[in-house]
Amino acid sequence: MRLLPFALAAVLLPLTAAAGDRYRVDLIVFTNPGLAGAEQPMPVVPPATKRAIEADDRLRLTAAQITVLPAPDFALGWLWHRLQRSTEFQPLRHLSWVQVDPPARDGPRLQVQAGPTYSLMDQGVGIPLQQLDGSVALYGGDLLHIDADLTYTLADTDGTLRGWRLHELRRVKLDELHFLDGGAFGLLVRVSRVPPQ
Q1: CB 3.0 to 4.6 Å from 163: which of 7, 44, 96, 193, for a disulfide?
Q2: Quick one: pLDDT at residue 2?
Q3: Helix (H, G, I), strand (E, B), or coil: what is residue 87?
Q4: Measured between alpha carbons, how far is 59 from 196 in angstroms, rounded to an integer?
Q5: Residue whose C-alpha is closest to residue 183's, from 21, 29, 24, 71
Q6: pLDDT in tens, 75-92
Q7: Is 42 helix (H, G, I), strand (E, B) or coil?
Q8: Paired sense of beta strands 52-53 and 109-122, if any
């Protein structure tokens, strides 16, 4: 009779460990159009998105143990609406997903895009680049990190492209709203643990 609790623990512990830790990420990318004229742009360089998973690529998302949540489930809707009503800021994109056991590094990246598509000329070849283009990853391990590699591009009236880049690896605390600054644009992100089902 005394061994029964230990036997149950031995059976149930692997089941709970197999489920893995699940984290929810909610993010907003926004711009400050007033700063686009004041902040010094950088040469436009397309972000590295070859490994990034598109939000509608179900096969790769499933393999990466990522579930992109539908727009009605977006948890920062109140903040998105405040940015929409703001005269200073313009929201560009929001995205929410749940990820099981994010790796400590070199894990799956989600593609983040919005706005019109421009053609960036590179050695006579046009490379498509969206106004907001790049990717974001959640890394686990001992501490959680958000890794953002995003560019924000504007076209002048003469067609010249101006760009800003946000490339940052930031440690994040659970359930706190974090701001990553890209000059003329920024990223707001919150990571929370999903309770076991």
Answers
A1: 44
A2: 53
A3: coil
A4: 24
A5: 29
A6: 999 999 999 999 999 999
A7: strand
A8: parallel
First to last CA, the chain: 29
Per-residue pLDDT tens for 115-135?
999 988 766 778 888 999 999
Pairing label, strands 185-193, 22-31: antiparallel
Average pLDDT over residues 93-118: 94
Domain boundaries, the chain: 21-193
Distance CA 97, CA 142 (A): 21
pLDDT in tens, 8-54: 444 444 433 345 899 999 999 999 887 766 666 777 877 877 789 99
Per cent of the chain over pLDDT 90 is 62
108, amino acid identity: P
Decide if 131 contacts 116 (C-beta within 8 A).
yes
DSSP E strands, the chain: 22-31, 52-53, 66-68, 90-100, 109-122, 125-139, 144-155, 161-172, 177-181, 185-193
pTM of the entire structure? 0.84
Strand partners, 51: none
